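Check out one such.
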Amino acid sequence: MSDLFSSPDPTPAEPAAPALSFREAMEELEGILERIEGEEVDIDRLAEELRRAAQLLDLCRGKIRKAEVEVTQIVQSLEEEG
């Protein structure tokens, strides 16, 4: 028997979307920015567009951090060999 105060069953997780490349994320961000600047975004969709832009920014920042770490490691290994 269901209890009125129990939490509802959790919704199943959505399948993971394929990872975007840095270039794809930047292109999508640029499109969002153009729509916002051009006032093409309906006010009802503005929050959704901004939420997506924030996700894309996080993705890009993560890719940049990862690349920085990899470059630093490569430079250090080259310096150790030299």
Summary: DSSP finds two helices and no strands in the chain. The helical segments are 22-37, 43-81. The mean pLDDT is 84. The chain has one domain: 22-81.
